[in-house]
Amino acid sequence: MSAPHERPTLAPSLYAYAKGLCDSDPDGPPPQGGHPLPDTARRGRRRPGLGYREALAAVTDILLPLLDAPDPARAADEAERALATTGVVREQTVFAAAAAIEPPDEPAARALARSFARHLVRTGTTVPGVSAGLGLLSRLAEPEDIPYLRVLGLLDGLVHPVDATLAPLDPPAAALVWLIHRTQGEELRGLVEALAGGDRAAVSDRLLKLPTEVRGPEVARRVTEAVDLVGLLRAEPDHPGLLARAVRLLARMTSSLDYHAEILRYGAAVHLYETVAAHVHRLPRDVDHRARLLTLALDLHSGASYLLPWPPGRREAIHRTLLDTAAWHGEAPADADGRRRADWIRRTARQLRAAPADAPRFRIEVAVADPGDPDVVETRFLIDGRPLVPEAFGPGPGLSPEGLLDSGALRATPEPREVRLAEAYCTEGCCGALYVTVRREGEHVVWSDWRRPGGPAGRPDLPAYRFDAAAYDAEIARVEHDHGWTWPARLTARLIAAGLRDRPDLLTRWGLRKGWISTDFREPDTTLVTFTGPPLGDGGRSAAEGEPRQFLWRLPDDGAPPEERAATALSRLAEDDPRGYPELRG
Fold first, then answer.
1. N or C: which end of the chain has fewer CB within 10 A?
2. What 3-state class would DSSP assign to 148?
3. What is the C-alpha to C-alpha distance for residues 88 and 82, in angstroms, rounded to an integer?
4. Which residues contact 192 (CB under 8 A, 6 or more apart)?
5. Are 88 and 51 in contact (CB under 8 A)?
6. What's the CA gap between 360 and 381, in Å, rounded?
7. What is the DSSP string of 429-457?
8. Whole-Å CA distances, 582 to 145, 171, 509, 572
9. Could you tell me which residues come within 8 angstroms of residue 132 by beta carbon, excluding any fewer than 6 positions away?
10. DSSP assigned state of 35
11. pTM attached to this predicted model
12. How does pLDDT run across 436-464, given as a tens digit for each residue?
């Protein structure tokens, strides 16, 4: 390593700085959010107007010629000085540029590249310098690098590059680094302290004290990795609390409400599924456990879990085990939430059992999430049995059946039509969407010309899919008329929307435009009709000035048949200006 006087500043390396903080309180808990960086860590100023691609190129141009330099220590000092002049200060950008550099194949050159990366990591004094070393090391790291990475991971500002470099070597350690920086809540903090202190006896207890629902799919994955949940279950197979917690965390990882399909990022997912399935008979047969097991069965059938690296026949066997265990027989629970979940279990289990045993070339299914853990209602596309959206896109689910099926958007005509199949869970403008062009060519329907504007990089290019036209038309007709997935409030919404498509004048006569019509996300038994237009002014007439407003008309389920409720709502729109309804929200 270079001597201190040979470095570009007299500041200590970031590793030495972090190590000193750890040594000053060796038995203390890790600081929430990590240790602050020293003032000298961000030398250099961001260059205004520097684009992302230009920034990547600037970092690459510095690192590439030094990769196999004969004196790695001197090369690391040179690289750190040069990085400070580029105007690239964001650690994730520097890391991404360095991680994209292909290491040499020749053993001697590879050893020099590894030494160069280690000098940057262990003696670097700036965030760009250390991030560059971490990016290079992400392809070259060995077990001896783990202690250095764990220490650097305690510094605020390095969590992303350390996590990405450490995860392939030691997933529990990487998950703990992430949790140290992202932890909120007393219960989760207690778990982090038990893990950081190496108190394995306390880890199970702290895990069971977490809230029933951890916040977000990524938090669920990180907790699962940090505690080595598969190891805990194998050590205590008779512990019902651990098994129930495993089912909850596994189900949470299948949620679409995140930027990634977290179940696919969890390296031990197949092992956890196997362990859960082997002991699932030990769980209480209440509605909560059955609903979560059915969530897993649904994801194994048509969600991201299908895409895990399954040994032949194991996915199907575990799917059958979970589906059989989740089956609901007898009377529904007395409480409203329990009845709603029991009804969902019956509908969804019936839907899964009705699926073809042999996967057809093309199939569409509507997936409804457990009402006890609200999620979107999505349209899933299966090509030769494989779910398209999580494999081809990732940051979000398929669009709602109302947007794709009720509108007839997927019907094939000789005129090509571009259709949006999926959108990022945040929005298309933030993280992208998945589009395809649908057209009829003689006896075939073709899906081609795929687009993923703003979507994730690194996804494989999609081919043009050709389907038998008669089979395609039959599948579209089947799924458009299939109401088996729905429930009364949702069917009411679909019938109202269909009525307004047939008679748009019911709203336009009042100067209003139809908006979103569905069910309330948090109250699935409430139909929600939205429309936009000018507010009512004096005398019950439309205001002449002012921005249009969105109006929300909530229709709680009163027990009447959906057809009757929809007809009543449409008749009321024909007779009265809905902006005057006393229950309306604007």
1. C
2. helix
3. 11
4. 29, 30, 176, 179, 180, 183, 226
5. no
6. 11
7. HHH-EEEEEEEEETTEEEEEEEE-TT--T
8. 67, 56, 20, 13
9. 59, 62, 63, 79, 80, 83, 94, 95, 97, 98, 120, 124
10. B
11. 0.90
12. 999 999 999 999 999 998 877 778 889 99
| pLDDT tens column, 483-503 | 999 999 999 999 999 999 999
Integer Cα distance of 268 and 264 in angstroms: 9
What CA–CA distances, in Å, run from 395 to 248, 289, 327? 22, 27, 31
Ranges assigned E (strand) in 442-543: 444-451, 465-468, 513-519, 526-533
Sheet holding 513-519, edge to edge: 513-519, 526-533, 549-556
Which residue bears the tokens 């006087």? 5
Q: 3-state class of 365 per DSSP?
A: strand
Q: What is the DSSP string of 546-566?
A: S--EEEEEEEE--SS-HHHHH
Amino acid at 418: E
Token readout for 180 is 């140290």
Residue 104 and residue 464: Cα distance in Å, rounded?
A: 36
**Residue 150, CA distances (Å) to 57, 147, 169, 245, 492 in order:** 29, 5, 11, 27, 55
Point out which residues pair with 528 in neighbouring strands. 518, 554
End-to-end CA distance of the chain: 67
How is the beta sheet containing 362-367 ordered, strand by strand? 362-367, 378-383, 386-387
